[in-house]
Amino acid sequence: MERRQIIAVYMTGFFSLSALQMVALATPLWGQHLGLSVFMIGLASAARSVSPFVYALHFGALMDSIGARRFLIAFSAQCAVVPLLYPLLPFPVAFLLLQLVLGLAAATAWLGAQTAIARIAAGNSQLTGRFSFFTSAGTVAGPLVLGFAWERFGPVGGFCALGAWGAALLAASILLPARKNVVRRPIDFGILLPDWRNYANGLRALKRPLVAFVIVCAFIRLAAVSTLDSFYPVFLQTLGFSAAAIGALFAIGNLVSSPSALLAAWGERMCGTAQRALSVSVATLVVALAVLPALESFWVIAFWIGVYGFGLGISMPLMLSLLSGGVSPELQGSVAGLRATANRFAAFILPLIMGALAESLGLGGAFMAISGALLVLVLVADLRLNARR
């Protein structure tokens, strides 16, 4: 494969996951702008994960046959256009509907990027580490760009920045290498009709203990990310932080996360196995999630967001490497779809639970309750895997 094409794969990682995070960050800011309640903001955050949850397995299986590049081009084009509609339709109902569309587009683009690197890497931790590094670097730049644009130009500027990010993702997708052994099928509304065999084939992979373990860790990891992205900006706003400061704090976490992705091999050596390293890294970010709501100083928050970012960054290449090395190339899309389904379920259910808990316990209490439950789940998953080996 040409160097230009490998760089294009890295760039899809740079722009795709960061687009998802930028959407997540814009959601509470736009909800606050519209004067919505905490519960309604939680509902809007959950809405962006409904359609990806339904279609991730189906789309992942289709990528195995149609090719990830074509999906990336189709859905990254939506990432470039749909954000521009938010300021044109400043109504709660339109907000929820746009979340459904943009959530599916951004999540499918990220799914396509994962499928592309999984087929290339085939368990090579060096390639997955570099891909994770560029992906994390994108999540550093994304919040900074969105936060600056929102602070300087308001919601219109923020959503224009998000649309420009989607256009850059489209350009990177076009440069991806095209697979030759693909099924010639148009990407139109027909792909929205689910084939239940795709779901059955994907769920069958859960019978493998290693796959099940990684999927559970992916759920916990994304549950923590979704909780932080959906509600921590609101919490910081109540402390008097500006949109630019909030964007800077999230960028600090991702700035630590980016080089941490290159330490996966070191983490594996320190912990003995890649599986144990994944457990420790996920537990680290959950502990940081529990600590953050108790803090008010910018630099103390920045330190703990850095701890959170370290766990977040080192866990990604470990998951990609474990799955790409343990599953055949013909099933990489299905397994990526399975992991994306777990991620989207976490991103859907956690904002709803968090919003309901925040109404009764307050945001700080809700963060503590969610973090405690996730930490227990990490321990159970690790013990179950070791018991079955």
Write a brief structural summary.
83% of the residues lie in helices and 0% in strands. It has helices at residues 3-34, 38-47, 50-66, 68-81, 92-121, 125-174, 196-204, 209-238, 243-260, 264-271, 274-291, 298-326, 332-388.
Structure in words:
With 389 residues, the protein is mainly α. It contains 13 helices and no strands. It has helices spanning 3-34, 38-47, 50-66, 68-81, 92-121, 125-174, 196-204, 209-238, 243-260, 264-271, 274-291, 298-326, 332-388. Helix 2 packs antiparallel against helix 8, helix 3 (50-66) crosses helix 13 and helix 11 (274-291) runs antiparallel to helix 12. The protein is globular. The two termini are 37 Å apart. 58% of the residues are buried.
Note the total helix count. Answer: 13
* DSSP, total strands: 0
What's the story with the biggest beta sheet? none
What is the CATH architecture assignment? Up-down Bundle
Contiguous runs where pLDDT drops below 50 for at least 5 residues? none
Kindly provide the radius of gyration, computed on alpha-carbon positions and rounded to a whole number of angstroms. Answer: 19 Å
Summing up helix and strand content along with how strands pair, one would put the structural category as mainly alpha
Helical content (DSSP H or I, runs of 4+): over 70%
Distance between the termini: 37 Å
Q: What is the top-level CATH class?
A: Mainly Alpha
The run of helices and strands is HHHHHHHHHHHHH
Whole-number average pLDDT? 84
Proportion of strand residues: under 5%
What is the 3D form?
globular
Please name the CATH topology: Growth Hormone, Chain: A
Any idea how many domains? 1
The CATH superfamily is MFS general substrate transporter like domains
